[in-house]
Design brief:
The structure holds two protein chains of two kinds. By secondary structure, chain A is α+β, with helices and mostly antiparallel strands. Chain A is globular. In chain B, strands 1-7-6-5-4-3-2 form a seven-stranded antiparallel beta sheet. In chain B, a hairpin with a 4-residue loop joins strand 4 and strand 5. The longest helix of chain B has 20 residues, at 121-140. Classes of the chains: A alpha+beta, B alpha+beta. The interface between A and B is medium-sized, with 23 and 19 residues.
């Protein structure tokens, strides 16, 4: 049994400062690039004069849209076309206008100041509602409307609302936020003119998908492109898209025949790369007077920025938002999402959230609390009454999802037990009597992760399937190459544990190869909590192929029939005599040795698998948040946070806990402080970490975590994925607690002191 | 847009003050880091100003122009139109002087674009406020 809280293999180098990130790398002859960005949110470019920059003694090249030619435009992950460098018009503040290549980073930055760009400012469109209003300034030539998308049954939902005794409506905004990884984005492009091969070391969460896109963008044959993700310092969705800086580095290297490094600074990361959320939602919930929830209905305005660069499966322009019925058994539901172009940075990434499920869970969990307030019932009791029951699984939701497994009430009970819920309510009553502001918030979430089945899901036409390849050495150690890409999640440990678990090996004897398209099988990468559900399944299946072949080889070694062998305690042994058997290392030696192998059995034990998930997995959890609000300053303090997560089988509980801690911290950020704000001229007001606030150890409580385990019935090892559960589940718990403390129906995130002050009774 | 209001006192009479604020060669250097590059006319000058915002230092270059004046009421508007020489920002302002007694009121309506603006509203406001306060102390000695 190799599952358990073993120490992370990658930490030996990371905690010693021996990690190797893109910006740590230095290649012989390497040049440095810098991007000139638009100061305007919307303007015509009248002229660009790069002559003075070219005179700079250390400048090698200055790229503009004109020089890039065919590479001036690139496809986005949502099949829109995005400018690599703006030609005649800039559409958001921070948009890429020119790229300078110089001997060093400082000279490149200096030379940016020598470029003269003449702009003619245009009116700006800064939110989805005004973008879609009649007579709005067109952000794009084709207009500001991106898409309309619906899910569920309109007629059945209308009918349920018509006969409902109680209907509650609430407008809510999930503000634009930024993943803000510790490491900003960057790349080193090195084009070898002799071999005709382009190598790109890049901060990407999806090396193979990027390579395919680079083949389309550069026109180079895909097998002549190698994408390497070295250590990546956090992604949270920010490192899924292709950014113009990467493409400029490639174009410059192809033009100059030298390696070119480009690494953005913090402001560039915050202002121009993939944001998340920016959903304005109007939700309605219909119920019977006794508390039974009948139906949910929601209209969403989605702000996509200047280009539709959202990272999500093709057929899901609003991601998996349609899981907004959450954990409740409702009769009908309907949602309608309208996307709009605005003069804001493009993106729309799954910021630690599987494709818009953070928005969906926030919506339903806030609506249920609004309903509880309207009915005058306890929010726990209302949830308990409406949760999907264990015998209903697999549960077909009213918006087309099939939830794989769940024991919802057990998770809720465990959270209430850990929180001592009734004692908390008693404490709150006492504090209220003294005029203190204490709030208790509940959320119960269901995630949908592990995209996805090829019959339903693709990105740019690529099936969302992932692979694993295991190589067994004659001395019994293993390497597993995977198509997903860690950004700190501990893949080098978790995937080694899966192989070790399946093959009876020590975790130390299994190493993980990842992040290099030349050495790993094809797959779509790590985001949407999909690594363990997809590539983890491929790894288990590949290991089982190794084990099955090992059985045939062991039978030859032991001169017994394969069917007489049983897999027991990590080795194949004779059914009636456990002392006669062989371990995988012994079998691996034989398989690479000279014994006679049975007919049809190839030398060695190597095996590969590509996993096409039959369904998504549906992790869930019950969260309880306790806040205190200072009546004098309106500062919200999260005093306690109890998180019970059910992510199926836990491979490494310590890593799972770490993911939960990180996600809960993200949740505090979104609920209390994070927002990318703009002024009326389109200036981004979140250009630094002084203005874009992210949570630190000061703001977070001592997390109290618990668990239940409901395995996924269709995943080979029953694991569901955990990466994003806590980010998805925690914001509504915190906002519910704040609303509970203030005894108000709703307050929009981020619940900053000024907003809380205004909402105070 | 940022709007700020200040007062200044010179201890000198109104006619003197009126002449001083309309003399671009005298008033532009009263802004810390400001200098006249070229006089285009009595009412218009090319100018530049170096501004430090925290760790950032930016040079804005552009024009200062007296766009309206009312000699009877002693009110005048000076329009500043400038661009960060690094191409990463713009700063425009309409500065209205309304003289009375031995000094006057200064109303500043400023629009900042680009890198400076993205440092956050609070920073721009604080820096601008400090600049104008410093300007009023220099004006006092004009």
């Amino acid at each position: 049994m190799a599952f358990g809280s073993v120490r992370r293999k990658e930490d030996a180098r990371l905690i010693r400062g021996q990690g190797r990130f893109v910006d740590d790398m230095d290649l012989p002859g390497m040049l440095h690039g810098a991007v000139l960005r638009s100061p305007y949110a919307h303007a015509e470019i009248l002229s660009i004069d790069v002559s003075a920059a070219l005179q700079h003694p250390k400048v090698h090249a200055v790229l503009t849209a004109a020089e890039l030619g065919d590479m001036a435009w690139m496809p986005t992950l949502s099949a829109d076309t995005q400018a690599v460098l703006a030609g005649d018009r800039v559409l958001f503040q921070g948009q890429e206008v020119a790229f300078v290549v110089a001997d060093d980073r400082y000279s490149a930055r200096d030379a940016l100041e020598l470029i003269e760009v003449e702009y003619e400012p245009l009116p700006v469109v800064m939110d989805a509602r005004s973008a879609l209003a009649p007579g709005a300034t067109p952000v794009r030539d084709e207009g500001n409307h991106v898409f309309d998308w619906e899910a569920g049954d309109r007629a059945a939902t209308d009918a349920a609302f018509a006969r409902a005794e109680v209907v509650v409506e609430q407008d809510m905004v999930f503000p634009r936020s930024h993943p803000a990884p510790m490491e900003t984005c960057g790349a080193i492009a090195a084009y070898d003119r002799v071999e005709g091969k382009l190598t790109l070391w890049c901060t990407t969460q999806a090396p193979h998908a990027h390579r395919t896109m680079y083949a389309l963008i550069t026109g180079l044959p895909e097998h002549r492109i190698r994408v390497v993700s070295p250590d990546v310092g956090g992604g949270f969705g920010n490192k899924v898209p292709v950014y113009p800086g990467y493409v400029c580095a490639m174009a410059a290297s192809m033009q100059l025949g030298l390696p070119v490094k480009w690494v953005e600074d913090r402001s560039e990361n915050l202002m121009s790369t993939g944001f998340a959320r920016d959903y304005a939602m109007r939700g309605r919930i219909a119920a019977a007077r006794d508390g039974r929830i009948l139906a949910l209905d929601v209209d969403v305005l989605a702000d996509h920025g200047a280009f539709n660069a959202t990272a999500q499966p093709t057929r899901y322009p609003a991601g998996f938002f349609s899981v907004f019925t959450g954990s409740y058994d409702v009769e009908a539901a309907h949602c309608r999402v309208t996307g709009a172009f605005t003069n804001k940075a493009p993106g729309g990434v799954a910021y630690a959230c599987s494709f818009r499920i953070a928005e969906a869970v926030y919506l339903v969990e806030r609506l249920v609390d609004c309903l509880a307030r309207e009915l005058g019932v306890d929010p726990v009791a209302l949830r308990r009454q409406n949760l999907i029951r264990p015998e209903q699984f697999p549960y077909a939701s009213k918006t087309g999802w099939v939830y794989d497994s769940g024991e919802y009430e057990a998770a809720l009970d465990e959270a209430l037990r850990l929180a001592d819920y009734s004692a908390l309510r008693a404490e709150q009553a006492f504090k209220r009597s003294r005029g203190e502001l204490m709030g208790i918030g509940i959320s119960f979430f269901t995630e949908a992760v592990g995209a996805g089945p090829r019959k339903h899901m693709d990105m740019l036409g690529l099936a969302m399937n992932d692979g694993a390849a295991i190589r067994m050495s004659p001395t019994g150690t293993a390497q597993v190459a995977i198509s997903v890409q860690t950004q700190g999640q501990g893949h080098e440990t978790t995937f080694a544990q899966i192989v070790a678990h399946e093959l009876g090996l020590s975790v130390d004897d299994v190493d993980v190869i990842h992040g290099d398209t030349d050495n790993t099988p094809y797959g779509l990468g790590t985001y949407g909590s999909r690594s363990t559900p997809v590539s983890g399944a491929a790894t288990a299946i590949a290991a089982r192929k190794v084990r099955d072949r090992a059985r045939l080889v062991a039978a030859a070694m032991l001169e017994v029939a394969p069917e007489d062998l049983v897999w027991r305690e990590g080795r194949w042994s004779v059914a009636g005599d456990p002392s006669v058997g062989a371990s995988i290392p012994e079998i691996a030696a034989a398989a690479r040795g000279t014994i006679d192998l049975p007919a049809g059995v190839e030398t060695g034990l190597d095996a590969e698998a590509v996993y096409d998930p039959p369904n998504l997995t549906f992790p869930f959890g019950a969260y309880v948040c306790v806040v205190d609000i200072d009546p004098g300053t309106a500062v919200v303090k999260v005093r306690r946070f109890i998180a019970v997560d059910d992510c199926g089988v836990r491979i490494n509980p310590m890593i799972v806990e770490g993911q939960i801690h990180g996600g809960l911290t993200d949740g505090i950020g979104m609920a209390l402080m994070e927002t990318i704000a703009f002024d009326e001229d389109g200036n981004c007001l979140a250009g630094s970490l002084m203005d874009y606030l992210i949570p630190t150890a000061v703001e977070v409580p001592d997390w109290e975590t618990g668990m239940t385990v409901t395995p996924s019935p269709h995943h080979p090892i029953g694991a569901k994925g955990i990466g994003e559960s806590a980010t998805v589940g925690s914001p509504p718990a915190i906002v519910n607690a704040i609303c509970d403390a203030l005894e108000v129906a709703h307050i929009d995130m981020p619940c900053t002191p000024s907003r809380v002050w205004e909402a105070m009774p | 847009m940022v709007e700020l209001n200040h007062r200044f006192e010179t201890g000198k009479d109104q006619d003197y003050n009126w002449g001083a604020i309309l003399d671009l060669d005298r008033i532009i250097p009263c802004v810390e880091g400001g200098k006249v590059l070229e006089r285009e006319s009595d009412e218009k000058a090319k100018a530049e100003i170096k501004v430090k915002m925290g760790a950032m230092s930016m040079t804005f270059r552009g024009t200062v122009e007296v766009t309206s004046r009312d000699d009877a009421a002693h009110t005048a508007v000076l329009a500043v139109r400038s661009k960060d020489t690094g191409g990463s920002g713009y700063a425009n302002a309409d500065v209205t002087f309304d003289l009375s007694g031995e000094g006057g009121a200064i109303n500043t309506k400023a629009t900042i674009n680009g890198k400076a603006a993205s440092m956050g509203e609070g920073v721009v406001q604080t820096v601008l406020d400090a600049m104008i306060k410093d300007f009023t102390t220099k004006l006092a000695k004009i």
